[in-house]
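Work Package 4 report. The design task specified in the project plan requires that, given a folded chain encoded as structure tokens, an amino acid be chosen for each position. We show below one input record used in the internal validation round.
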């Protein structure tokens, strides 16, 4: 399966078994695991999304848009959004947590902000952040991904389990599921599990991102300015090497 869209993709994230991507500079697409555009959410003209925080359970998404001096609280189910103006000196980190319909996000100084619809307020330290490291690279499906020296990735799961991986390029885009780490570089996608490394090489254009979708991998690439999404299986990947454990 594959999907081609004439779209300048600069923001994409996994949303359960679906993918959220920007619709150029005006909104969002939600694409299901059959590579069908399930929903288009129109936001506002010239929106530039720096990062986002999602909750599949609550059907909510919060978009951080510092170039627009705002954050956007999106109710995906109701197709409704709220735009909240913020100070230009606020820089949110990847650390966040949804509690019912409220989104709690930390900045890089450790200040916690509560975001709900059209309001934002500063809160005391939220207990959901305490057990995890303050320097977090990414948050995926209630797992925190942290990066340390020597390109070592640590994954902190909510049950306390910690997985560690050593990767060659810390600038790669990351996803994580079922104790497997997915790393996207411009020219290849690599899967690290507890026994081996396998890879899929770019044949045309360059890779933007990849995500675990159910039992498969969705790979997003740019081919001559067109966004292309392919659904791959692990047997489409080439063996790289066995990991010594």
């Amino acid at each position: 399966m594959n999907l081609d869209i004439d779209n300048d993709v600069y923001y994409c994230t996994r949303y359960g078994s679906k993918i959220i991507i920007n619709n150029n500079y005006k909104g969002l697409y939600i694409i299901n695991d059959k590579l069908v555009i399930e929903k288009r959410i129109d936001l506002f003209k010239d929106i530039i999304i720096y990062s986002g925080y999602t909750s599949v359970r609550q059907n909510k998404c919060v978009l951080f848009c510092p170039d627009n001096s705002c954050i956007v609280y999106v109710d995906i189910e109701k197709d409704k959004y709220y735009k909240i103006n913020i100070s230009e000196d606020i820089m949110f980190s990847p650390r966040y947590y949804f509690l019912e319909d409220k989104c709690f996000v930390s900045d890089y100084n450790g200040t916690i902000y509560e975001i709900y619809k059209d309001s934002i307020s500063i809160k005391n330290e939220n207990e959901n952040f305490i057990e995890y490291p303050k320097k977090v690279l990414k948050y995926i499906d209630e797992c925190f991904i942290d990066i340390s020296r020597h390109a070592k990735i640590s994954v902190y799961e909510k049950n306390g389990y910690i997985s560690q991986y050593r990767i060659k390029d810390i600038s790669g885009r990351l996803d994580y599921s079922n104790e497997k780490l997915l790393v996207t570089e411009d020219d290849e996608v690599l899967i690290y599990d507890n026994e081996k490394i396998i890879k899929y090489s770019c044949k045309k254009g360059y890779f933007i991102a990849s995500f675990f979708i159910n039992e498969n991998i969705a790979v997003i690439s740019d081919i001559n300015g067109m966004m292309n999404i392919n659904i791959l299986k692990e047997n489409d990947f080439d063996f790289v090497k066995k990991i010594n454990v």
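The two ends are 35 Å apart (CA to CA). Validation will be extended to a larger panel in the next phase.
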